[in-house]
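WARN  no MSA supplied for this record, continuing single-sequence
INFO  ligand: heme C
INFO  echoing inputs
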Amino acid sequence: MMRCASLAFILAGVMLSNAPAQAQKKPPQADLEQCAHCHGDEGIARDTEVPNLAGQNEAYLVNQLRAFRSGARRHPEMRFMSKTMTDAEIEAYAAYYTALKP
Ligand code: HEC
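INFO  complex generated
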């Protein structure tokens, strides 16, 4: 019994320590769903005032999210969405949307 419990504990620890690496590959689904409200499930926006993100250049997306975060590019909604993003999260969003079919 003791053994099983500590094994579960170790596994949980391994999974937690892997979380940042996974987040870099693909942002959490719950976060992507927030973006999808405006940018669409596949990175193609339904509203004409919202840009498509699918297939966009990765470095460009990184730069735009950093600019929203710093306030250099002004936009209330995107400022709100980006203000708590880490650099790793920004890179993960950029990589994710770049890989989608335009
Ligand atoms: C409330 C709607 C809304 C949500 C939610 C939203 N966005 Fe945006 N996003 C916009 C709009 C509108 C623009 C265009 C801003 C402008 O006109 O300057 C934009 C612009 C962008 C751009 C720049 C695109 C370009 O071509 O310059 C990126 C990158 C981006 N959003 C990523 C995201 C990510 C990642 C999320 C989720 C974390 C997200 N957005 C959530 C509305 C939204």
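The chain has a mean pLDDT of 86.
INFO  checksum written, moving to next record
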